[in-house]
Amino acid sequence: MRCAKILFSLILIVTVVFRCACTVDALDIGAKSYVLLNADTFEVIDSSDAHLRLPIASTTKLMTALILAEQEDLNTEIVTTAEMVTVEGSSMGLKVGDTVSYYELLVGMLLPSGNDAANTTAIVLAGSLEKFADVMNLKASELGMTNSHFVTPSGLDAKGHYSTAYDMAILSAHVLKNKVIREIVSKEKITLTFGNPPYERTLYNHNKLLTRYEYCIGVKTGYTKKSGRCLVSAAQKDGCTVIAVTLNDSDDWNDHEKLLTYGLSLLESVNADENISLPNISVVGGSCDNVSLLVPDFTCGVLQNSGSYLSHKLELPPFLYAPIDDGTSVGEISYYYNDVLIKKDPIKAAKGCAQSHTKQRPFELFYNYFIGLLNCLI
């Protein structure tokens, strides 16, 4: 009996080792550097030399696009100058004197990878390529991209222009949270109207994974002789999202299909907001005593059977002053994965509360304040 148990244990160990070896061998990623990231939790699923500094070609435009997409009005139109559009390489077709909007520049950067769109963006927003590089580097620092340095807005080779697979994955996770960019990079083509005079034209996406891989939702291609083929991709399935980045990879389309499939197979979806108990907040000077609260739905992908956990923290005032409109933001909820902040969402009033025409007595004001303060401490 004892021999049988020992034999069974050996077989089990060999089986586990064999399966692990098969998983690693099956991926067989040929990139000089790569990373596979859980987009929701920023957790690395698989990687090789992920922090190696390398040229990143036109995947640079993800940073330029993010900065542009965060501008107040994407319908803003500008007229191009020679300085903006005189640049080598890929183009969205801008000429001197063209009228083009911020949104159209985003499409021109992200689909046909227009260097003219990137340069135009830099000069419009910062006045020069050099000053815009400072903006890019400041943004990189804010996002925690500690091994990146930007010199050009387009990704054309330049001394001191580099990033890493890991940093680009972090950038892409933030990029995908921008609804406008997320929609653009998921499209195979987009028809726009710009020029002098403006006329309709269709721009096509260079990302072949959108047609090759059913779960692909973006993100960006890149190539120069110095950098080799660079690719950032993302895939979503059953509420889980993974990001793959390969730098200097001659077989990137196939490698990304392997990485994305592998990543999605390891994740499971959980409702992060499922067990959240929201208090009612007392209202001072209102036609109602308190208002109920709500938070947006948040579905998060986590590694299966990892023992990891999600938690949250509420930030709410002790009370509110009437009037309060439906859907008014009254606080914030922060989500944590293994004690690391992964997302913040507004907490809103589920229903409004009008101002009372009856003046509250001092005791009532004190009572509402006390109840609100007590709710915050519980």
What would your notes on this structure say?
The chain has two domains: 30-269, 3-Layer(aba) Sandwich (Beta-lactamase), CATH 3.40.710.10; 281-377, D-Ala-D-Ala carboxypeptidase, C-terminal domain (Peptidoglycan synthesis regulatory factor (PBP3), Domain 2), CATH 2.60.410. β7 (216-224) and β8 form a beta hairpin. The strands form six sheets. The chain has a five-stranded antiparallel β-sheet with strand order 2-1-9-8-7, sandwiched between helices. The protein is α+β, with helices and mostly antiparallel strands and 378 residues long. It is 34% helix and 28% strand. The protein has helices at residues 2-27, 61-69, 82-85, 102-110, 115-126, 129-143, 165-175, 179-185, 209-212, 252-266, 362-377; strands at residues 33-38, 43-48, 77-79, 99-101, 189-195, 198-204, 216-224, 228-237, 240-247, 267-271, 281-284, 290-291, 293-294, 299-303, 310-315, 320-321, 329-337, 340-349. It has eleven helices and 18 strands. The chain is globular, with a radius of gyration of 25 Å. α2 runs parallel beside α7 (165-175) and α5 packs across α6 (129-143).
List keywords for this structure.
378 residues; alpha+beta; Beta-lactamase; Peptidoglycan synthesis regulatory factor (PBP3), Domain 2; 2 domains; 5-stranded antiparallel beta sheet; 4-stranded antiparallel beta sheet; 18 strands; 34% helix; 28% strand; globular; disordered N terminus
